[in-house]
Structure formats: structure tokens, C-alpha cells
Specification:
alpha/beta; about 100 residues; globular; Rossmann fold
């Protein structure tokens, strides 16, 4: 399972599918939560994950497609668009330091 040290994370990508707006809100929430840290939060379709992504955050229903499109990248699957424990863990790790993994 891939992992990365939080200090080496430069780009977090929130990958979505249908574009209903929920993942846009999550990306905005992540930007606010991580403000002040040297990390970019980007929102992209799951089929267009950029090659320079360090961490990909996506709904569990899209995890297989995200993994196929970004092999070797740390993938954080979540179930809840707001308040999911996996996303909270990512934010806490980014702020306090440590290893980011799924």
C-alpha cells in the first residue's frame, strides 16, 4: 500500500464523477482546513487525475477507477462528503506531520 510523508505532499486531488457539487464542497473544505500549509488542493474528474498528484481523495464508489488512473499514488477513499473520518485523519496528519496512507 503506497504511503507518503506529510511534508512531501504538494498536491491533493479530490476526484469526482458526476459533478453534483459535493466533491467541490469537499475540495473547498480541504483548502480551508489546510490553509497555511504548502499544499495545493485540486478538484478533477476521476478519469483525469493529474500525474503530479501526491494524494487522491475520492468516494469509495470511485476508488477502483481512481486507483487505475493513478497507480502508486496514496488513495484516501471516503463515504461521507462532510465529516468523514478518513478525510479528518488526512487533515490531522497533514497538520501534525506523519505518514499519509489509506
Amino acid at each position: 500500500m503506497p504511503s507518503i510523508d506529510s511534508k512531501d505532499v504538494k498536491k491533493i486531488v479530490v476526484a469526482c464523477d458526476a459533478g453534483m457539487g459535493s466533491s467541490v464542497m469537499l475540495a473547498s473544505q480541504l483548502r480551508k482546513s489546510l490553509s497555511g500549509l504548502p499544499v495545493e488542493v485540486q478538484h478533477t474528474p476521476v478519469n483525469s487525475i493529474p500525474a503530479d498528484a501526491d494524494v487522491v481523495v475520492c468516494h469509495t464508489g470511485l476508488a477502483a477507477r481512481a486507483r487505475a488512473g493513478a497507480p502508486g499514488v496514496v488513495l484516501i477513499p471516503f463515504n461521507l462528503f462532510i465529516g468523514d473520518p478518513a478525510v479528518t485523519k488526512l487533515v490531522n496528519t497533514m497538520k501534525s506531520g506523519g505518514t499519509v496512507d489509506a
